[in-house]
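Workshop exercise sheet. Pairs work together: one partner reads the sequence aloud, the other fills in the structure field after running the prediction. Swap roles for the next sheet.
Pair: D.N. / O.F.
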Amino acid sequence: MTMVSSASEKKKRSILNKKEILAYLKESGLSPNKAYGQHFLISQKYIEAIVTAISPQPDDCILEIGPGPGILTAPLSRLVKKLICVEIDAGFSRILAEQFAAMTQVTIVHDDFLKVAPVDECTRIVGNLPYNVSSQIIFRVAKHYTALQCFFLIQKEMAARLIALPGSAMYSAFTVGVQLYFDVHKLFDIPPHAFYPAPKVHSTFVKLIRKKDIPLQDNEKEIFEQLVATAFWARRKMLKTALKRSPYGTYDESFIESAFDALGFDPKVRGEELSLQDFIALAQYCALHDKR
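Structure field:
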């Protein structure tokens, strides 16, 4: 008689419950490291929800950032062709290497994700990101990776910034910078008690879908970043004032007036009121017409 297990059955068998996770940490002599901002998801309900949302496929190569004790690593490893895990913590890297030694599809890399060379082959990127470096990690993924889908567990406030609209309090340089590369979708919130240790804030699980085309050349991207930084450096000031005084690069008044007239910008517009498409158009205009 042949036994055939479905992907969902395999996934459920490989997911530990809270008691098992805490016992595993105790037996391994490991605990969350405050320096790395570690808060481990221990709710079986949310672990299953995350794996379901990721919907790993048999031909996927997934890059997991900061796997910690392997809470997501275990179920993902049984559902994909390849799983590459980058872990900065030496203790967890050692335990993960031992735990998955027999699984040739799993590679454990002991390194800082912000410093390790990009992994070109990954099709999806997953991570429960430390709050203190989440924005840096997301920007690095945006600029140096090509994975079509990313799934991140981040601070709820940061998720709000990712999906904020122009003119809102949460709209920021981070919003515009990430939205240049990704369409961002909020999936669900996760309360503090679902983690060990419990953080002081709520978390949100988000999905980032990479845009097929970015309408900026490399030199235009550099200008785009300078303009966005300028706009939010003085977000309450009129944009033309910020452009004349910015530490990121200044423009003379006649050029600013020409640009605003050509693009149809209100002379009194503030940088925080510009949409992503406005910033793109301004960057393209500056790249084409500025002769500094």
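Discussion prompt: Residues 1-13 have pLDDT under 50 and may be disordered. What would you look at next?
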